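Researcher: Next sequence.
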Amino acid sequence: MKHALLFIALLCMLSVSLAAENRSLQEGTIVRMRMADCEGLRHSFMASMSGGQMPAESCAEYVLVTDKVVYVIVGKSSDQLVPLAETTRFHFQNSEVVIRVDDARHESHFHVKAMVLRPEWERSQQLEEAEAVALMAAHRLQGAALTGTQR
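Model: Next structure:
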């Protein structure tokens, strides 16, 4: 009887821990990638101790969009690559975003460079797009004015 109760208690704890683990996974989509300087305290410390500048290593910087928050994350090394435009499952561990790409044996850890609420990010994207359209229109007008004066 004691063994049966112990077994049932163990199953209950296991199911609760698995449910908690599954709840901690979040989903998002990587929508943008660009190369940026790696953010590592070790590099700046070594540069200051040596008195010279160490060559900057480039790391991938990603924009990870979730339902409510948009994260800008940067890898710790240049070999951390994540596919774009796919649903990505991630979780937080020790103030870092941890992503396991399906084919990888290990998880990749990323620093959170910035985060913003999704509605604010969408507004800023619309403003950037409008500025780009206005800049292209001004460039076209300037080009048309130059070709008109050359005739």
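Model: The longest strand covers residues 26-37. The chain has a mean pLDDT of 77.
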